[in-house]
Specification:
The chain is mostly helical. The chain contains 6 helices and no strands. The chain folds into 2 domains: 84 residues, no CATH class; 35 residues. Helix 1 crosses helix 3 and helix 1 crosses helix 4. It is globular, with a radius of gyration of 16 Å.
């Protein structure tokens, strides 16, 4: 169980630190629900020093992960493992491409996602 909790916290820390870009209201460690604290236990010592936008993103990620099916969780774990195997330069390149993608109109983003899904299948 602890291994799963640590893995979940690591997954969301890496993913959300890479892709969070909007500020939200700050949430202190003591105000988290016990279940959230359990999932984010590895971050307890640093939580209150994290930027507010990261905290909010991590909390959203925890909620999203907890609502996933086992298959979706497995896919998220695979993506995280691929992320961890990449170099810092690859991470930076991915972040830049993601920022460019976010600047596209939502209709164009939707079309690109459809093309990506077709390509993967």
């Amino acid at each position: 169980m602890n291994r799963i909790v640590n893995k979940i916290a690591s997954i969301f820390l890496a993913f959300l630190l890479a892709f969070s870009s909007y500020a939200q209201e700050s949430v202190s460690w003591n105000s988290l629900e016990p279940q959230q604290q359990t999932v984010l236990k590895k971050l307890e010592g640093n939580w209150d020093q994290l930027p507010a936008q990261w905290r909010q993103s991590l909390l959203k990620g925890v909620d999203r992960f907890q609502n996933m099916t086992p298959e979706q969780r497995q896919e998220a774990n695979k993506k995280f493992q691929r992320w961890r195997q990449r170099t810092p330069e690859q991470h930076q390149n991915i972040r830049k491409r993601f920022e460019c993608f976010r600047k596209f109109p939502s209709e164009q983003q939707r079309r690109l996602r459809e093309v990506q899904k077709r390509f993967k299948n």
